[in-house]
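Minutes, project huddle
Topic: does the predicted pose make sense with N,N-dimethyl-L-histidine bound?
PN asked that the exact inputs be recorded in the minutes so nobody has to dig through chat later. Recorded below.
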Amino acid sequence: MQDEVLEGLSRAQKSLPSKYFYDERGSQLFEQITRLEEYYPTRTEIGIMRANMPDIISMIGSGVVLVELGSGSSYKTRLLLDQLPSITAYIPVEISQNFLADVVEQLNLEYPELTVHPLCTDYTRPFELPEINTNFSQTIMFYPGSTIGNFHPDRARRFLGTLSKTLNPGGSMLIGVDLIKDTDILEAAYNDRQGITAAFNKNILRHINQELGADFNLENYRHKAFYNQQEDRIEMHLVAEEKHEVSLAGEPFLFEEGESIHTENSYKYTLKKFKELVRPWFSVEKVWTDTNNYFSVQYLVKH
Ligand code: AVI
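Predicted holo structure (tokens), as shared on screen:
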């Protein structure tokens, strides 16, 4: 973490890896974001899944191993677990050991028949799935929430390539992808009136203070989020309100008034662009969207 943070803060455009939003407080704030009126992705994705469940289920089929990248605690996971006729095993892949242990405990209570094989790892790096000794028809990866949008498209393509190596041909992926839409709607989703997204953004500094002993004063920064039309992405920044210095690992970092730290990108896609992105590894077999075309849930099959 220290190396990555030092490296990011040493760039001409200071930046921080967005994965460091998610300590316990950050995960709670994100959970609150998903329930905000302005933040359309979560409820839209859930709506798409609910409206198309029979179709989704028939694409997935029965007797599969379901691998979920990230949390595994969400309402969306339960939608699938409740509706799929039979699952040979469920594998939640999650980096936080504590979080994963809670998820498994909860799932064991709620779904006593379900075979759960938790995997504690950073799924953005190459990993191997646990061996399943029972026969199963296929492996399906579930990657909801448009988290793929937090990667630069080149990185997203490489990441999907790495993931596809853990699948057999015919293995598949059910993935949520946020779509390009009116700038006002996009910008409102990342500038909510209650300031929860601002608190979530600033939390990265609190997390770095806590983990690395830095001395960021959160009051010195203002949340900024805007849609960059050239890059098809929402950018989140923390803007220094005045000139000041921050010390981290014995190194001073100077901030000019108005200078920003780039904390997150959230890429938005057209269906065509996403199809091109995955083309080296996956065919897009089916796309479900909402009536506004705000969000898509896509079924990809490895060729
Ligand atoms: C997790 N990820 C898909 C969210 C997004 O919309 O890019 C993170 C987020 N950042 C600000 N609000 C939500």
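Observations noted during the meeting:
- Residues 64 and 138 are 5 Å apart (CA to CA).
- DSSP finds ten helices and twelve strands in the chain.
No decisions taken; revisit at the next huddle.
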